[in-house]
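Model it.
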Amino acid sequence: MIRLVGAQSVAERIGKSDFVIVDPRRPMKYLSGHLSGAVNLPVYRAFGDNGSLLDPAALAEWVGASGIGEGVTPVLYDSPQGQNAAMLAWIMEYLGAPEIFLLDVFFERWKSDGREVVYRPVQPAARRFVPWLNQRLRATLDEVHANTTDRLVDFRSREEFIGERDLDGHPGHIPHAVNLVWRDLNGPEDRLLASREQLERQIAAAGIGHGQKVVAYCRSGPRAALGYLALTQTGYNARLFDGSFAEWARAGLPVEK
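Modeled.
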């Protein structure tokens, strides 16, 4: 389960043996300033050279190397717009981590509020992470292709959705999908997500009903992970299609514009 928590809650957990503060940004961002005790686990390394998510065993080894294992809860944070932390939180939830804490404001807000920021990298103490896959959180290409009931939500830009911007030689979107732009999910004042009321209005305006099962996708996963987070935090039954549109396009499957 992913829990959004405030800055004071995170501050109280820094240095506790049963928590690991995790920075999912790229190393240069991490070295430009991070939370005290935070280890760097850049989420881009969860993907192979072909852009696909690593297999569960490799992911579990990668997560364990950051110091996360039995009895240790990860506490994640990010910079705008939050797709790194959202993707890593989903990966950990998919791998069976019982609880994941996610700072509800961006690092920049933490810093501007005068909270402690450090610059020296932290060497994690590796642990053994045993995965217990939560398959219901993940949608495969075959499942999306065969889908007739779940609501497909495309979290890419409007230009990508309608085919004006093409990154895969296959302009458009998966048939019957609706568009909810990922950048619109962030809240004001460096908050990771908009208020529940604002999110519910946006989700409803996109034609997504509370009783529907939802599959979130973007181009390669991280933007849709933020969408997955917004959906699940507002009570929707959602899965992530981590292969997303890039995998759909590689398979040569039909698109709409």
